[in-house]
Amino acid sequence: MTAATDATLFPQVPATADAVLDGLDPEQREVATALQGPVCVLAGAGTGKTRAITHRIAYGVRAGILQPASVLAVTFTARAAGEMRGRLRQLGAAGVQARTFHSAALRQLQFFWPRAVGGELPRLLDRKGPLVAEAAARCRLKLDRNELRDVTGEIEWSKVTQTVPADYPAAVVKAGREAPRDPAEIGQIYATYEQLKRDRGTIDFEDVLLLTVGVLQDRHDIAEQVRAQYQHFVVDEYQDVSPLQQRLLDLWLGDRDTLCVVGDASQTIYSFTGATPDHLLDFRVRHPHATVVKLVRDYRSTPQVVHLANGLLSRARGRAAEHRLELVSQREPDGEPAFTEYADEPAEAEGTARRIRDLIAAGIPASEIAVLFRINAQSEVYEQALADAGVPYQLRGAERFFERPEVREAGVKLRGAARFGGNDTLLDGAAGLPSEVRAVLSDMGWTDQPPAGSGAVRDRWESLAALVRLAEDFARARPTATLADLVAELDERAGAQHAPTVEGVTLASLHAAKGLEWDAVFLVGLTEGMVPIHHARTDEQVEEERRLLYVGITRARRRLTLSWSLARSPGGRPSRSASRFLDGLRPGSGGSRYRAAGGPSAGGVERGRAAAVPDRPRRAHRSPARCRVCNRTLTDPGEMKLMRCEDCPSELDEGLYERLRDWRSAQAAVTRQPAYCVFTDKTLMAIAETVPASAEELAVIPGVGRRKLDRFGTDVLAICAGEEPGEGAAGGRAEGAENSLEK
User: 588-597, pLDDT tens digit by residue?
Assistant: First the structure.
């Protein structure tokens, strides 16, 4: 087990709050125990960010610091939100809301709409395309399929950047954005689309956010009710937040700062949708007293893969590159990434299929292999090549697992078998949960051996086989589980969109692969004009393409193959070249292996500087005390003052401790008070162990306090620095001290 992975598919719920912290590395533990906001987690690929933030929430809940219903965790995909809910449930923190921005906003909008506006919420559009096409026709403009998709994307970008139709042409110029057709025409289509929605009483997904923002801005009573419900916020993938989502988050927060954000500027790959890493990069500007934790221990990829990923980013330019994280692999070494050049695209696809077949023959499951490409149109040639090679595959982004007809049918049959139990003839002779599931699914055509070839029949079998494997894993984790227990687990997973593994090679675009990982990854079609894509013209657009390739590289755990072809078709002119991003990285391409634009960020923790004097007193946060050596939660007063367990190793500077005791005796003599009224032995020991170098570091030591810091801080810091304390120690500063020392 690594610090970033779970030990089993169905782990036991930790027995105590401290047990929630078991297995976390030091930086992850800092995240998990930093329960006071604001907190910013800069998390590189594969560093266990989801693990860190879910353990943070669970630790806060289990320690009694956070109430489950008061926490709202938001992310960007239903899959990610479902995974978060599943992990929280396994950690004993059920009841925490984990949703996408749109899901959370829609829930609030549905609840408050009758009170804020009256009547029922307008119907939500499933798809914009048909209405955008109608709007274009109303404007006497014809859009082909690609133009329709692009114009729809422009409307979505406009709405999340809070750009109204009349301002669209100017906004495009200001953003340096290349419109797919005349900006004035797009603005006209956009305005007509909005009018059509109003006429028909419908809203789209962006309207959900816009309307929620409007309600919270205009109705302070509703805003206060939402803020009373949600006291703590966690935002995953914060680099992908749009201006509209940030505005909604600000309204949720109000004047509080109980916020934890997690992100990586080097994985910003959705700027075309309005996402910007500026909110992440400016977090310390907006919250000067924030705690910043950097996660750089990569538990996913081998040193060879991590080295290549670091090398790619070392050549990056721009603001995001200035904040890049240098990953450090925690895995054992494996083979070097392979770079392969092919004569044409079919040869590249066939060569990739052969390598995949060899990996499967060597024991790597097909579900642990992925083929990633820049655009979906590249998929077809790989589908054909894998089918010809007899290799099963699945398309990422296709129909959700629990929405497949065969899975829905299987759920009905399993539920019926669980209800009727021994009276169901399908279960005759079945012993044990996996055997019962196999018996039920056999009635649907499932067999121990997969059907030959690919296509719909094979897809159906793979879905049923995934349910059988899930039942086997469930039974191993919970030997006494019944069929009814499995049905309940499937219901939980369906609600969370936490699908079991389907046994097939994954085909996916680089964008769709975000957040996923495999043992073996094939990055294909890496030619100029494809990566970076030909329409990436500005420096920032090219840098986003580099980040997209970085995301692809960091999906691989052990094996990575990068390939390109010189021609599109067999016999074609070999006019293509490998992506410029591979220069200096692949053998024989020349150039420096690492030519950094700016120094990378190392892992660790940065404590926020003192905030400016606030307009009103900040409410004190209740936070658990913890040992600074082993990080165990402390409850004994003496240990809390010492900031460590009594039996944990001490780094006491005995010479410094004796000098502090001598200084304390002098102070006590002048003030005619017992020595412990100056500082207790435990406080002096804590000072001698931590050796603070600044007033901020001294102030956090229990037993110091603001008044003692003002009175004795200069002397104590001088002693810690090896200097003599000021004469004020026994002189003018002692005047009247008898009446003003803390009792």
Answer: 776 544 444 4
